[in-house]
Design brief:
FtsH-interacting integral membrane protein; mainly alpha; transmembrane; Bax_inhibitor_1-related; membrane; 86% helix; transmembrane helix; 236 residues; single chain
């Protein structure tokens, strides 16, 4: 019995170590993506290109290109090479930097920085919760995904309605949705590490890390944009 107990402890420790290593890889790639987005956005705004882009048809082309990259990467991750997946993720982060350069035109630098730190704090707290909680968040994840679809639909409808009340409602609900998705995604990534992805070889590890990084990247960026609506100081 003692031998079996020691075996179980050793196996549990091995799973935890594998999960920790995998999580570190995911968060590293997420940080790289966020850093690339931030640098591109700041450079585009500082150079004056963002001001030209906002009134150009190229802006909408970039938006659709971003959506296409996310859908393609999600749908083809099992079939493409790890290097291709990595390149697509970095390409998406760079394109997102181009479109997010508009943020520097609309809001003051100090309010952007303050909102970034607020976002980082909330994101970090929910990431820790996703790591330590014993509660299975898969059911909540399905509910939050439905909430995300609702936000997208409501946002499209509000393009035509131009309702300020709906705008603020979408923003508030969006904060709760992306805060919840952060905890859900972190727990899902942790489970991937414990379930043996580290034993599947370099290709599987890298592709899994990229998809995990993309999920967390999207959670962070969208949470930041929702919070910016509340805390961002307008330049006008």
């Amino acid at each position: 019995m003692e031998y079996m107990s020691n075996q179980q402890i050793t196996l549990s420790q091995a799973k935890q170590e594998a999960s920790t290593i995998f999580l570190a890889k995911v968060f590293n790639w997420m940080a790289i993506g966020l850093g690339l987005t931030g640098v591109v956005a700041w450079f585009m705004a500082s150079s004056g290109f963002a001001a030209q882009l906002v009134s150009s048809p190229l802006f909408m082309i970039l938006i659709f290109a971003e959506l296409g990259l996310v859908f393609y990467l999600s749908a083809r991750i099992e079939k493409i090479q790890a290097g291709t997946a990595t390149g697509l993720f970095l390409g998406y982060a760079g394109l997102n930097g181009l479109t997010l350069s508009m943020v520097f035109l609309a809001y003051t630098n100090s309010s952007i920085a303050a909102t970034f730190f607020i976002t980082a704090g909330m994101f970090g707290a929910m990431a820790v919760y996703g790591l330590v909680t014993k509660r299975d968040l898969s059911g909540i994840g399905s509910f939050l995904f439905m909430g995300l679809i609702g936000i997208i639909i409501a946002s499209v409808v509000n393009i035509f309605l131009k309702s300020s009340s709906l705008y603020w409602a979408i923003s508030l609900i969006g904060v709760f949705v992306f805060v919840g998705l952060t905890a859900y995604d972190v727990q899902k990534i942790k489970n991937m590490g414990e379930q043996g992805i580290m034993e599947q070889g370099g290709e599987a590890i890298q592709k899994g890390a990229i998809m995990g990084a993309l999920a967390l990247y999207l959670d962070f960026i969208n949470l930041f944009l929702m919070l910016l609506r509340f805390f961002g100081g307008s330049r006008n």
